[in-house]
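Following up on my earlier thread - several people asked me to post the actual chain instead of describing it. Fair enough. Here it is, all 323 residues.
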Amino acid sequence: MGQQSRRGRAGARLAGWLAARQGAGMWWKTPPRDVAVSLFARLPAALAAPRRSAWADVNRAGMEIGSFLEGPCFDAGGAFYLTDIPHGRVFRLEGPNRWHVLAEYDGWPNGLALSNSGDLLVADYRHGLLRLDPATGAIAPLLETALTEGFRGLNDVIVDAQGAALFTDQGQTGLTDPTGRVFRLHADGRLDRLINNGPSPNGLVLNRAGTHLYVAMTRACEVWRLPLRADAMVAKANCFARVPAGTSGPDGMAVDAHDRLFVCNPGHGVVWGFNAQGVPVLALDCTEFGRHPTNCCFAPDGTTLLITESGTGSVLAATIPPP
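Reply from S.P.:
Thanks for posting it. Predicted structure:
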């Protein structure tokens, strides 16, 4: 199959979905532009030996897997980090073929974010919110409970301009149990609960102004948009975007300099790009490399989107065009 045919699949797929839903009130008709995706790096075989894990027993039907990459994140110096959930590892990627195990511990690390102090924050499904020293790999707990109540299982974390950490408490929530939560931990230790009725809150990201929070609701195939207030009163939250229904909905997300929202959709092996009004404008088909694009972030240049393809232990790259 030629490259043009491969690149056209994602746009055609969404175009068909949009056409089928025009009668349901969808008002856009132009399919998104295709953006080429390439292989940036792959976890070396020495670090990807398949083995059993308690995480994969539940989440991958007992398969022996060598990794499940997540949490792409850059620090202030331009170093690139990734997590490996089932085997409790945090990698620093120093080049396409230079993977360094920064930390390995008894946990399930998922999301990563750079704190204002220069440490990395880790959203760990087992242990809550952790702090990781990128110089030494030392890990320490930051927040293990919410008012002594254990978390369901943290998924992703980001840090706002004031140094507050916003994170999702996803656990095993979904359409039959819409009790997932989103928290905000202020720099002074105050804890806000922004959402308590989420059907699987997963990735989250702020708009450029920091006034609104996007949250991927995986099992609902939706992205919610929440106005943020200092007093933690959440009102007028709305569904900002939907992805086509399938085996898995939206996962990790990123926002570019033009306030476009990029949403990983492992159910379809695609990363969708939505403009600031929620209209799908770009499509990045990852299926040539794998069907599990789980998270993404922008490189320091602001135009290169790096994507974790968790099924193959790969990192993909795409150059995002201007509007």
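The chain has one domain: 3-319. That should answer part of your original question.
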